[in-house]
Structures are given as C-alpha cells and as structure tokens.
Amino acid sequence: MDKEHVSFLALCDLRGVGFETLRKISSERIKYSSFFDLEERSELAKIASLQTSFAKIFEHLSTRTACSDAFDEGRRKLDYFERRGVSLIFRTDERYPKRLLDLYDPPHWIFVEGHVEALRGKAVAAIGSRKVSPNGKWLATYFGYCLKELNVVTVSGLAEGIDQIVHRASLAAGLPTIAVLGTGILLNYPKGSESLRQEIIDGGGCIVTEYLPNDSFSARNFVRRNRIQAALGHVVYPIEWGVKSGTAHTVKFASDLSRPIVYVRTPMQAELDWIPSDLQRNCIRVTLPREHDRFVQFINNGLTSEPDQKVLF
Hints:
Blueprint: H1 3-12, H2 19-27, H3 38-45, H4 48-53, H5 55-60, H6 64-84, E1 86-90, E2 109-114, E3 123-127, H7 134-150, E4 153-156, H8 162-173, E5 177-180, H9 194-202, E6 206-209, H10 219-232, E7 235-238, H11 246-256, E8 261-265, E9 283-287, H12 292-304
Parallel strand pairs: 3-4, 3-7, 4-5, 5-6, 8-9
Antiparallel strand pairs: 1-2, 2-6
Helix pairs in contact: 1-6, 7-8, 10-11
C-alpha cells in the first residue's frame, strides 16, 4: 500500500481537518506522510504560516503513538476502499484524467468508484435542471436515443431530473456513464440514488468526486463540482437551464475551457437568443428533431477536436 495514500486517508479522519486543509498541503507541495514522521513534522512546525494552517494536525499527531494509531486507521480505510472498488487517484497518477488538467485549479486528487477506464473515453457532459419540463424531458430522452449513433460516454451529476435521465439513457444504450458528485464518495446523495449508482458501476461507468469521503453537500461544493463535469466532457450539452441556474456554472466553465457547447430547443420553445453573448463561443444552436444531422455532426466534430480548436459544422 502506498504511504501517501494511507497518510492522506489518515488525515481525512482527523477531527477539524477538512478539504481546504488538505488542499493547502497539496498546494504547498508537502507530502502527506510528512505529518507522520516526527522529524519531518518538526521541520514543518518551524514555519510560522504552516504552524497556523496545520495547527489541528500538529495537535492530533503530537506523539508517536498518535501518529501510529492514525496511520493504522488510514490503512484500514484504504483496505475498505479497495474492497469496495474505490480508487484514490492523485494528480501525479498516470490514471488521472488528462482533461482535468485543462482547469486552472485541477483537483489535487479524485476518488473514483467503479471503472476508472471510463474516464479515458470520448465524452459528452449532458446536464440540466432538477425540475424537468416536458420539453426538457423530451430533449434529454432524444439525446438518449442518439447515444448508440454517437457511441460516447456521458458525464452528468446524478441529480434528479435531467441528470438521472441521461445516466439511465446511457445504461439503456449499453454505454458507460460517469456521475460527478458534489459530496464525498461515502454519501448517498441524492437520497434514493443508491441503486442507480450501482447500475452505473455495473454498466462500466464510475462515480467521481474530489471531496473527502464523508463530506456533505453545499451550494459551493456543487459549483466546484460543475467545473469537473465541464472538463471531463469533450463536448458540453446543457439540456434545460437558465442563466441563474446551477447548470449555468457548468456552461461558464465549459466556455472558459473552450469546450464545444450544444444549445438545443424544441420547436415549441422560445428561440435561444437569451443565452449571454459571453457563452456563445464555439457553440451551436439547434432545434430538434429538425436539425438532427447538424446536431450529431457538431458533437462528432467536437469529440475529435483539440482544446481551443473551433469546431466546424
């Protein structure tokens, strides 16, 4: 077992040591295992700023026995994750999804439950509202019917509404789907999604999060989660959303990353001229099903384009 993985999980379990503390350790390029070596920890404690930032860690790991006990707990947690099929992947790991490195603040680590290889496939991030209108449901379902033709992995957020329609459509098409969480990997959120999570894993997909195993949900967590959805997709497909919605954050991240974006409507919906001008770079606006060929062609072109390359159709 890798010492850094065990040390990271041991630190996760220390009371008062949370996501931001561990992120700072990573940003400072400090090894997690340094806190379990009395000599190395003593050197860290000499730096005033680190003494303040990591006061809780120094407090918990003040003796050799405390270090040993905490490290043993980290080893037990890693054993449990391995039995459950959860991988802890650091940014330096060759399995780390390269598309996440396009972000200005890539996650320092991700937890992946299920098939890590799904993260290497060509993907469309398809997201949208929890409260689905008949038009939104139709557009999400229509996309599902196109999946066999597109032969792509889908990325969504496991939320009720559009996200779950997308995940289930992938499963029905026999294609992997990726659920990106705004909570820790051990939380079943949203409530009642446990069976869908297992279906996603059984179908060759995976569950992904950067949050610590028991981290709960918050509005801020979901906004940060959305950047991962945008980055994992070669193309981003917002199905039903508004300029002040959670999905709008994903769209903004996608635009900043120069991901091709597909804006859609049905003939019964208003024109898409309400979309802000700063979100209209490298995008297409289509009406379905009338412009099906244009829709599919743009996505296929986006799946093979390089970042910052304009997608032609």
